[in-house]
Amino acid sequence: MFFCFTFGTHDFSSPLKGYENVIVTIPSSEQTATPQAHPIKRWPWFTFCFVPVLPLSLKPYHEVSCPVCRFLQDMKHRPDIQSQGPGAEHHLGPPPPGQQQWSGPPPGQHQPPPQQGLLPQYK
Predict the structure, then answer these.
(1) Which of 50, 52, 77, 113 is most buried as measured by Cβ atoms within 10 A of its Cβ?
(2) Are the C-beta atoms of residues 72 and 40 closer than 8 Å to each other?
(3) 27-46: b or e for each residue (b if 16 or more CB lie within 10 Å)?
(4) Alpha carbons 22 and 85: distance in angstroms, whole number
(5) pTM for the full model?
(6) Is 82 helix (H, G, I), strand (E, B) or coil?
């Protein structure tokens, strides 16, 4: 009697909650016109006969993934993306040390005064 068993791994992935609409530029997509990387939650599992049996990590990975070039990067290394997420601090205080706050044109450069009767158009 012959039995054939298959085993391997499978990654279960889904969009990272709170980052669904975030599109990220990654090093390989800087040369192209359309960045396509998105933050995802990925959880690898060991499978036996195509049935998930054992998780290969204690908790899912939070990563940036590009479906075109298969680029993966841990979210810990992307503070620019973490600042756009649900746990980001949005406050109107002084900037953290080491960051400059924009305060207008450089000294010696003057902007023309706004024209009367015209409102700025925002898109």
Answers:
(1) 52
(2) no
(3) eebeeeeeebbbbbbbbbbe
(4) 9
(5) 0.58
(6) helix
What are φ and ψ of residue 8, in 5° steps?
170, -155
What are 58's two structure tokens?
């204690």
- The predicted pLDDT at position 53 comes to 92
pLDDT in tens, 38-51: 899 999 999 999 89
Contact predicate 45/61, CB 8 Å: no
Q: Which residue has the tokens 């599109």?
A: 23
The residues near 61 (Cβ < 8 Å, ≥ 6 apart) are 41, 42, 43, 44, 74
Token digits for 19?
């980052």
User: Three-class SS of residue 84?
Assistant: coil
The conformational region for residue 49 under phi > 0 = left, psi -120 to 50 = alpha, else beta, is: left
- Beta strands 7-15; 38-48: pairing state: antiparallel
d(CA 19, CA 72): 16
